[in-house]
Amino acid sequence: MPSFVSYESFENGIALVTLNRPEAANALSIALLNELSKLLDDLAFDKSVRAVIITGAGDKAFCAGADLKERAGMDETEVQKTVAYIRETINKIEQLPHPVIAALNGSAFGGGLELALACDIRIAADTAQFGLTETSLGIIPGAGGTQRLPRLIGIGKAKELIFTAKRITAKEAEQIGLIEYAVPRTQLMEKALEMAGQIAANAPIAVRQAKLAVNRGFDVDLATGLRLEQMAYEVTIPTKDRLEGLRAFKEKRKPIYKGE
């Protein structure tokens, strides 16, 4: 039985997740979603993981979104259930406690871009293209695109991209803040692994609390956000890692963080 999601872990705490349907542009079939959802459930409780990279197999596509060939045979109820399943699975990515980097090896459209939007950081091959193209198919982004895209790039630009179903280049995506970096395809994984390694070298409890503070504080008023930050900071105070950081600074050496 083929595996539609592959997983690899590295000694430094980096987890690499690969969408593995290159013959179908890594589209989100039910079978792929089943594997991805289960893997995300496992990752959420894996304390050995410090950073996650999600990429796609092949050179052309990161993820084409929903599997439209599969959807063509569904009735309305089945479509509703499938869209809900895609939405729930993508939400699990955003809810992972670890930082998640999307290494966009190729183009991402529709649900594929929505998946990337749920990641914390996006690095793309400079040959990739992006778009929320749903309105050209008689639907709208249904897995977070109408909510996450304007929060990332601003409401006006997000409306333009969604209303027109326009496809943009990696260079354009970098300019408007949709992705953080556009790099040559041959350098993509090197860049993603380098950044993940920098994250993994830091205190994991602190990194997780920083992610929580930023994510939860983004949509509340400043006073509430500052309170959330204070609460997240206080979680780090009794940790052994905090003391290790102080000792390493005093001894002028690199800290060795254990997530304790």
Protein described:
With 260 residues, this protein is of the alpha/beta class. It folds into 2 domains: 5-200, 2-enoyl-CoA Hydratase, Chain A, domain 1 (Alpha-Beta Complex); 204-251, Lyase 2-enoyl-coa Hydratase, Chain  A, domain 2 (Orthogonal Bundle), CATH 1.10.12.10. The protein has helices spanning 30-44, 68-71, 76-95, 111-117, 145-153, 155-164, 170-176, 188-200, 204-217, 222-236, 240-251; strands at 5-9, 14-19, 51-56, 61-63, 100-104, 107-109, 121-125, 129-131, 168-169, 181-183. The strands form 2 sheets. Strands 1-2-3-5-7-10 form a 6-stranded mixed beta sheet, sandwiched between helices. A 4-stranded mixed beta sheet has the order 4-6-8-9. Strand 1 and strand 2 (14-19) form a beta hairpin. Helix 4 packs across helix 5 and helix 5 (145-153) crosses helix 6 (155-164). The longest helix is centred in the first third of the chain and has 20 residues, at 76-95. The chain starts with a strand and ends in a 9-residue tail after the last helix. The model has no long low-confidence stretch (mean pLDDT 95).
- Which percent range describes the beta-strand content? 15-25%
CATH topology of the largest domain: 2-enoyl-CoA Hydratase, Chain A, domain 1
CATH superfamily of the largest domain: 2-enoyl-CoA Hydratase, Chain A, domain 1
Parts with pLDDT < 50 across at least 5 consecutive residues: none
CATH top level of the largest domain is Alpha Beta
The CATH architecture of the largest domain can be given as Alpha-Beta Complex
Task: Briefly summarize what is shown.
This protein has 260 residues and is α/β, with parallel strands linked by helices. Helix content is 48%, strand content 16%.
